[in-house]
Amino acid sequence: MSMVEKISLFFIGGSSDKFYNICIMEEDDGTFNVPFTYGRRGTSGQSGTKTTTPTTYEQAKKAYNKVVKEKTAKGYKVGTGPGSGTSGVVNLATVHSGITVEKVDSGILPQLLCPIPDDEVEMYLKDPRYGAQEKKDGRRKFMQRKETGQNVSINRKGQEVGYPACFEDACEFIIKNNMIDRFILDGEEVGEKLYVFDSLQIGNKSIKGLPYKERYSLLQQMVMEKTFELLPLAETEAEKRALYEELKKKEKEGIIFKLLEAVYEEGRPSEDIVSYSQRCPQVKNKFYATASCIVIRHNQKRSIGLGVYDGTELIDHGNCTIPPNKEVPEINSIVEIRMLYCFKGGKIYQPTYLGPRDDIDAKECVVSKLKYKPE
Q1: What pTM does this model have?
Q2: Is 316 a residue whose pLDDT tops 60?
């Protein structure tokens, strides 16, 4: 793999201070890819590729030129920006090889969901104390607007990470339309959209101590921009049942139930409690099983070996094929797998590769989180 051509662009205006890097990479087989990275300078940014599969040089050059033309027309300049040094400028060859930069700890952590089995769903549908929302299939993210005017995205590990460039405009929309100088939104990032479902701060006031229903009410007045979309909340039994049936019919990821009077609490209750249904203020019921696994080997024909921990021992749980439009993840990296179930003693049945997980630690890849075939 070698770099044929690259360009670094930057844009500074108002509170915006962002970069966009793009290049043409030649693969060992003579085909070409056009990877890119963008985000706020000083972050690792979001990365992707303009070519879903390797292509000819002519097609790669066409895609590359189109992006450069569009960005410069929007005011981007060639270079890394004044006083930037290497901050916010990510070497695209490094990104392409799967190496990431060290992330900054924000000190902000999410309230996590407790899983419930199918036979407990009915009690939450009937219980008027709980509301319901769709469980989106994306990445858990905070979007924070600091008092300094800087926008920061934070993952479920509390690390500052990159975010889509369109989030800048969405943040400005909220600031101007609500006449506030800061906020912290909690949501699920799916592509170039943040589905917002909670908030920790609005203006200079922390609202973590308010009941969820009140926090959601404040969001209804605040989040109206299409890039940041407020996730609907079903409250009555009829609304919850209708939502549940719709999500099942459309084969969505799952449903979430939230105690409407609960305050925001980081983390999740210990798994040693008597029952999640008695103690956890936010629970999830997933319609299909997923698992976070460690890549333990590379096989032939774009296949990887999957491992999870049973205590301190890393157990082989079979193989998974990587689609041709996705890069083969590095050994020891963590990936997300969709599966039908897992056989006792190992071997995931019908695994489907969903993508890499840089917001999960290896210690979270454990057998207790796998769904096993009923006996």
Answers
A1: 0.66
A2: yes
Amino acid letter at 116?
I
Q: Is the predicted pLDDT of residue 322 greater than 90, yes or no?
A: yes
Give, in order, the Cα–Cα distances in Å from 171 to each of 44, 200, 274, 364: 19, 15, 42, 32
Nearest to 234 by CA among 135, 140, 137, 130: 130
Q: Which residue's structure tokens are 């019921």?
A: 285
Q: Provide DSSP, 119-168.
A: GGHHHHHH-TTEEEEEE-SSEEEEEEE-TTS-EEEEETTSEEE---THHH
Q: Which two tokens stand for residue 337?
A: 């797998």
pLDDT digits (tens, 9 = 90+) for 43-74: 767 777 887 678 888 888 888 988 888 888 88
The domains found in the chain, sorted by start residue, are 2-96 (2.20.140.10), 114-286 (3.30.470.30), 289-369 (2.40.50.140)
Encode pLDDT of 102-112 as tens digits.
Answer: 457 889 999 99
Cα separation, 331 vs 12, whole angstroms: 38
Which one has a higher pLDDT value, 38 or 94?
A: 38
- Cα-to-chain-centroid distance, residue 346: 27
Label residue 53 exposed, middle or buried (CB < 10 Å: 0-12, 13-18, 19+). Answer: exposed
